[in-house]
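Structure tokens please, single chain.
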Amino acid sequence: MRRNLRRSGIDIIGDVPWGTHFCNFYQTRQDLLAMLMPYFTAGLESNEFCVWVASDPLDEQEVRGAAASVIPNFDHYLANGQIEIVPYTEWYCRDGKLHLQSLFNDWIMKMEYAISQGYDGLRVSGDTAWLEQKDWVSFMEYEAVLNEMSEQQQMIILCSFALPRCRASDVIDVVNSHQFALLKRDGRWEMVETVQHKKTEQALRDSEEKFRVLTENASCGICIIQGDRICYANTEAEKITGYSEDDLLKMNLWELVHPDYRDSLQRDAVGDQIDLTRREIEILSRGGQQKWISFSYGAAIIKDKLVILGAFCDITDHKRAQETVHQQLYCAQKMEAIGQLASGLAHEINNQLTVIQASLDLYIRDDSLNFMRSKIGKAVEKASQINRQLMLLTTQKEQSREPVDINQNLRELRKVFSQMIGEDVTVHFELAEDLWMINADAANIEQVIINLI
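Here you go.
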């Protein structure tokens, strides 16, 4: 997994990931300023919340004055509360006593406050010139625990030690309780790493490279979620959501999930055991656009922390096509029901028309009823025609095409024509004997001819 790298501001180390805990040994006040000024400048410009724990040789007022003269817009950052300058007596030594155990929780609270205020994370520096030899062992134990604790936190910690006050054994203790150390030799800063840290970093780089190759070439979005925060998202996740990875890392997870699915997903996320699950949900991409995704997720433990590994694909087009099919099926079923109803009505109407026509035939010899019989007969035939069209419309069978003789069709329709148009109109048939056969549905052809008449 590609770690979220941050600008350190220090040329010799370049960009560093969250969780970096390192130290520097300085000899003069100028050495200390040369290290801390670019360090905090980079943090402030990178939207990080900064805490500077001041001690000799730079007290709180001197830090303010020096920073204002070197860091661009420092007064603006200070007024907006993006940086706090705290004397060591209010952080390490409260009420004249050393409080180390509570500091772990204090750092976490500072980091959570920073994130809640919209900052990317926490950047810290503390000077130890105040540290007395009698407290040295306790402080090194504190540094060792802080070194482990900080690895998975969104914080960067730089501890400063005055080299003239350190014994050779003290230097070794400091290096062993940090990821690496910076010291100045012959006017140049050099980096000192422990063998274990070098091996760990190399193994981590190898593992991250494999993970990067796998995820960045994946055809689906991949994310790692811790709590309510997204701590990793690959390129495909950026494409699907419309957000950059930096944007995703700043967001609350539930901002992406459509409100209709938040409650059920939150219920699934309760507890330490999350079984591998696949669900289809809607998300809100950049601009509020709704998208359907197929989301598979499960729990994993990474560095003693419970996280959720998720993979998802955009199925919006598939869902829309599915919805279209459902609508078409519904319409077809509805039309089939209407057709069945109309077909039943047509048969009933036809039965009644037959009765009417038969009754008219009984009065065929009564000349006094000729005019009325003619009118009623035409109405019956017109109704019969409409009824035939209705029955043809409701027929659900597929069209069957076969060779059709148009002449034969017309001959069979002669009787129908005479009934349709009455006795006062004569229909003459002039049929071409050499007329070609056509490939068509005979019933439909008959209906076309009737419609023309």
